[in-house]
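> call design_seq(struct)
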């Protein structure tokens, strides 16, 4: 599938917004597998396709590199970071360890009750709502899901753990968003987040830990399956297109030969 193009009038936008637009376009191409893991490309190619100068392209690529989505090669262009399922499994394990530690601290008698209840109330404004008020846009819910889990870790009160967790979150972003973009997890996410908040509100450390562990492990299982399926679908479509093009070329040769 061809990466998306931007409208010709885009260069009329302010430089900062132009970089944001290029960044968003490239990021969505990566999330939608229009740019495949392992694909290599040059800044000039992106600039020409999106009808912009190289400066916003380079700035957008640097942002994507900081998120672990692409990486630059000295004098050899850029590459969409290949998906390493073993590495992502390790990151999911680290994420689970951090969140289990966080909810244990949140449910500890040493945690001020006001801190715990304030957290539950603030997060509940979004998650503890009726089905009619739930968001249906997968990527919007994915962003809220990240905020929910980051808030749990942040509230536990260890700034160093908080920094590490946010780095893990950035590196897992492409995998986690696949679940919301191509899976059917929005309803389950709302329900599971509500259950986690209820356990934290009641200071039930055992239940909170069980819910967090199942929530993360189920998500990992689903996104790994979706990733494999999407890659197989895209590669099969690309192979079919090549075969079709070769067949058409051969037919033309026979016709005009």
């Amino acid at each position: 599938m061809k990466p998306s193009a931007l409208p010709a009038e885009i260069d009329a936008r302010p430089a900062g917004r132009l970089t944001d637009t290029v960044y968003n376009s490239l990021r969505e191409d990566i999330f939608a597998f229009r740019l495949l893991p392992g694909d290599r490309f040059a800044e000039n190619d992106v600039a020409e396709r999106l009808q912009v100068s190289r400066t916003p392209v380079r700035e957008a690529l640097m942002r994507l590199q900081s998120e672990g989505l692409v990486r630059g090669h000295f004098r050899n262009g850029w590459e969409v970071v290949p998906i390493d399922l073993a590495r992502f499994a390790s990151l999911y394990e680290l994420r689970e360890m951090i969140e289990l530690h966080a909810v244990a601290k949140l449910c500890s008698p040493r945690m001020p009750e006001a801190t715990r209840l304030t957290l539950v109330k603030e997060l509940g404004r979004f998650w503890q709502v009726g089905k009619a008020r739930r968001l249906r846009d997968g990527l919007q819910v994915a962003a809220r899901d990240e905020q929910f889990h980051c808030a749990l870790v942040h509230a536990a009160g260890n700034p160093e753990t908080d920094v590490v967790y946010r780095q893990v979150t950035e590196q897992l972003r492409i995998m986690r968003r696949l679940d919301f973009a191509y899976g059917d997890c929005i309803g389950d996410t709302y329900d599971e987040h509500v259950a986690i908040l209820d356990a934290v509100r009641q200071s039930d450390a055992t239940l909170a830990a069980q819910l967090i562990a199942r929530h993360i492990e189920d998500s990992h299982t689903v996104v790994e399956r979706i990733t494999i399926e999407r890659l197989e679908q895209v590669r099969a479509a690309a192979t079919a297109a090549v075969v079709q093009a070769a067949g058409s070329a051969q037919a033309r040769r026979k016709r005009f030969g």
